[in-house]
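agent: user wants the structure for D-methionine transport system substrate-binding protein from Asaccharospora irregularis DSM 2635. delegating to structure tool.
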Amino acid sequence: MVKNRYIKKLFLILILVLGTGCSNKNSNENVDKVEEKETIKIGCMRITEDIIDYVIDEMKDSNYKIEKVVFDGASNIPATALNDGSIDGFVVNHLQWVEVFNEKNNTNLKMVKPYIYYFKNGVYSSKYNSIDELPKDAVVAIPGDPNNMDRSLRLLQRMGLIKLDDKKELCNVADITENPKNIKLLETEITATVKSLYDVDMIISGANAMRLSGEDFEKSLFNDPVDKDFPISLTVNDGTEDEKWVKEFMEATNKESFKKKFNENYKGTFILYNDIKGE
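agent: tool returned. relaying tokens verbatim.
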């Protein structure tokens, strides 16, 4: 009898030990589950990667882990990656560019409101100090994608250098009706336009691209007066714009700490909409 009681006690102790071990294991698994964050991949290019870094910093206590995916090359690569599901969103192209991409590729990418910023676009030259100095047969480098080409041509028209048959929604070089100085247009990939600065007479480029290249981005011969009409923000696939991570991402861009870092870094080449009165 004593032996049986002893065996029963050992059996009860064993059950308690095993039960405690399982409880601890389940508890540890629950902790791991709480600490595991959902990874969100956000595409960018060198010109916008600092923005993603600032958002990552603002969202460090979020349940989402923002992973920055930096693309190099043509400006359409992030949009293509978003459409095929390789990334969850991107911050690169302006609204009109995204709309044209959707139309040409039968995609449904959506830019999230309120828009974050716009970029200053200008005219630069390593040879001349004013538009009036531009000689006949001058070579001008402009972005070659449809939307930014249209924007560049309209800027040249505002400067009085060409006239366009601008009845079309998007103009190209074939729509130039008057070109008194016989300007030659060199079409470039927008990310490479600034590289032509010393090879041509004039370029049309974003001020931040000039800044990143170490050039004097404030020495523009002419500033685009419609910069604000080309907003940039987080772009996602249609139907995902109301997801929680999108809301947290956009909230991060509205924090004072984000805005401070943004303005200090971009030095006026990118302008936040919520820094503008009336926006």
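agent: one observation worth passing along. Residues 2-35 form the longest helix (34 residues).
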